[in-house]
Structures are given as structure tokens and as C-alpha cells.
Amino acid sequence: MRFGEHAQQYRTHAHVQREIAAWCGEWVEPDCRQLSALELGAGTGLFTEILAAKGFQQLTATDLSEQMVAEGNRCVPAARWEQRDAWAPLPEGYDRLYACSLLQWAVDPERVLTHWRRALPSGGRALVAIFVQGSLQEFATASGRFFPVPMRSEAEWLACFRGAGFEVLRHEVCQRVQQHESAIAALRSLHNIGAVANRKLSTAELRTMLTGAEQAHGNGEGFPLTWVTLKAELVVN
Ligand SMILES: C[S@@+](CC[C@H](N)C(=O)[O-])C[C@H]1O[C@@H](n2cnc3c(N)ncnc32)[C@H](O)[C@@H]1O
After folding, report:
1. What InterPro entries does this protein's entry cite (predicted)?
2. Residue 200 pLDDT
């Protein structure tokens, strides 16, 4: 994905991600003064802002992209910002892990979640929001090469959490449909936040995908783009 290249404009265009951060934030405990937290894939800090308001004893926000970390630090200076790969083993010492709109891009999420579970103490929790099957289906059905990794279903994610050794405390799915002027405008909205694969489709493949998507979903008045999100709270027993 190309998030880092779009760090400076991410906040202006990440409307769905902002809504998801607020929705996920509903499950953060109200009083976190005794807790330390690590956020992964924090981007420019849309979810970090919500965490910062909870008064954590220690709040560390991280992202793989240097540009995102710089922008996050500028936007949410209340957190400590670091560059970190969320797919690699994590340091111990945190009571809570958070990841909003990140985990769907992991090639081997069960392995990643196992790292996360091992970093937490007994009773430690992770709260995640993930795009699941059905998201961006308007493009995914028009091109089998649209996603760099397969979009997993809710059931696959629940199996993945449990396979990594977490207990699922609660989970919920919600669907949002954004309206765009056209398939091209919808695709541009994804480019604006960097939510596009590094391995680009050829011009011919892109044209075929856009034409197919417009014919299947465009209705003369606009073009819908569907986002299906799972949020889940996980605990280490
Ligand atoms: C869709 S953005 C979400 C950002 C933020 N959590 C939000 O809700 O707005 C995904 C973020 O994950 C970061 N990312 C992608 N792969 C990562 C990895 N392996 N480790 C850490 N961050 C990663 C990207 O740089 C990007 O900032």
C-alpha cells in the first residue's frame, strides 16, 4: 500500500476511517489512567486522538511509515510517536493494544496476532477494527487483482483471533456505503489516502475494471462504494 506517500493529505480524505475510529473508540474503557497502551498502524492519529483523551498512563502511537509518524506527531503530540512494523514481534510492557483499519493488510494475520498476544500480559486486551469481505466489493468483483491480499470474512477473522490464542470478548460488524460521482471518482478517493496496492494494475486492466464496475453499480446518479467493518475486543487469558 502507499499510505506514506499520502500522509499529508490523509486526514482531508479519510472520511470512512475517521468514522471507524469514532465507532471503534466506543469500546475503549472510559478511565485508562492506570493503563499503558500501544497503538499500531496509527497513521496520522485519527484513533490516537480518541485514545489521548482517555488519560492513559503511557500512550505510544506507531506506524510503519516515517511520513505518517511525522504527521501523527504534529497532529497528536500528546502521544509518544515511533516508527514500528506491526507485523513483527512487539515489545512487552503494554496493557492494551489498538489497531484501527490496519490488520486487513496483513498477509498472515494469525502470525501477527500471535505476536500481539505474546506481547500482552494475562488479562491484557487488544481492540481492533478491520475491513472485511464485502468492502469495496464494487471494485473487487470487477477485478480479481484489486486487493493485494484476500478480504477475509467475519467468521474467518474470528477463527484467526482464536487461532492466535485470544478470547473474543465481543465483536460487531457495520456497513457503510459512500456515494461518489462515478467509479473513477471512487477510485480517486482511495488513491487520495494511499489505499492502493503497490503493484499497480495495467492501464488496460484498470479501464476494464472501471467500465465493469460502472456498468454493474453506477446508476446514473452516482456510484456506491461499500465498506464493511468488524470491530473486536480480544483478551489474553
Ligand atoms: C488505513 S491507514 C489507518 C490509519 C489510522 N489507524 C486510522 O484509523 O486513520 C493504515 C495505516 O497502517 C500503516 N501500516 C501499513 N502496514 C503497516 C505495518 N506493517 N506496520 C505498521 N503500520 C502499517 C500505514 O502506513 C497506514 O498509516
Report:
1. SAM-dependent_MTases_sf (IPR029063)
2. 72
133: cell is 469481505
Does any ligand 1 atom lie closer than 6 A to the CB of residue 40? yes
Task: Give the pLDDT score at 198.
Answer: 63
CA dist., res. 185 & res. 6, Å (int): 17
One DSSP character per residue, 137-157 reads HHHHTT-TTSSSSPPPPHHHH
Q: What is the CA radius of gyration of the chain?
A: 18
Which residue, by CA, sits nearest to atom 14 of ligand 1? 41
Ligand 1 pocket residue status of 146, Cβ below 6 Å: no
In angstroms, the CA 117 to CA 114 distance is: 5
At residue 59, the pLDDT reads 98
Q: Is 135 in the pocket of ligand 1 (CB under 6 A)?
A: no
Look at residue 140 in the predicted model and tell me its pLDDT.
Answer: 93
Task: Give dist(CA 172, CA 211) in Å, integer.
Answer: 34
* Ligand 1 proximity of 99 Cβ (cutoff 6 Å): no
Contact of 39 with 69, CB cutoff 8 Å: no
The count of C-alpha atoms lying within 13 angstroms of the C-alpha of 134, restricted to the half-sphere facing its C-beta, is 16
The ligand 1 atom at the shortest distance from the C-alpha of residue 195 is 1
Q: What is the CATH number of domain 4-132+150-176+228-235?
A: 3.40.50.150
pLDDT at 219: 84
In the chain, where the domains are located: 4-132+150-176+228-235
| pLDDT beneath 50, residues of the chain | none
